[in-house]
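Supplementary notes (optional reading)

For those who missed the lab, this is the record we used. Protein: Acetyl-coenzyme A carboxylase carboxyl transferase subunit beta. Length: 290 residues.
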Amino acid sequence: MSIRELFKKKSKEKNHTIPSMKSKNDVPEGIMTKCPECKFVILTKDLMKNAKVCPECQHHYKMTAQERIEHLLDAESFESMDDHLKTENPLDFPSYTEKVQADSEATGLNEAVLTGVGTIQGKQVAVAIMDAHFRMGSMGSVVGEKITRTVEKATQLGIPMLIFSASGGARMQEGVLSLMQMAKVSVALKRHANKGLLFVSIMTYPTTGGVSASFASVGDINLAEPKALIGFAGRRVIEQTVREKLPEDFQTAEFLLSHGQVDAVVHRCDMVDVMDRIIKLHAGKETDRA
């Protein structure tokens, strides 16, 4: 049975909805949230209980790294790594240091990725969760270093590695130092694979640029959230280059699924169960080989 068949969402059996109401009135700030896709209005607290997924149209809101940790991992199991690493300004790019500092204060993160070790249903995993609220999740030298160190930790412990990508790509303010992180993380993942260990890549909105062209696309299993934007160059750039009109769903998770680039599109509310099954299946195969 293929990965796609195994983890095909049983939409008839599950109904990811929370009762709410429609309203044409202005939405009180903070108390209610209006869906940007279908304009459905829901209590913010109910939206959070539903893993930040619109109960009407299933639109997946962006998650912070901390929110995803709380949703994915067992309570109080997460131990973060390398929170002391700080971004420098190697090219003396104007205002770069100030912008990084502002994002750090706004998000509570030291960089655009949160890394560490935790458990899913009692099974230990290493995780790297990118956060698009920090410099659009762009990958600089500290982001690459943190992910690499986490992969190396997973290799040392002999545990699965999970990477949740949410990125605008390599960070231009660091030039080639940013681009080299693509190769550095990929080499660390290859060493992890050489030990027979599992790497699951989960692509969320957005996964673009150098991140999509490197570690986000080389998982043993590649998953994506519904309607996630996934691609390297932008739609307009591609259309101007090939001189063709691209399909409306181009660079969506569903488009990539139909073309074999991802193994499954997984609803966020199903993610914990899917991860649990993947890890169990991998552990079973390891036992059989032994």
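If you only remember one thing from this example: The chain has one domain: 63-289.
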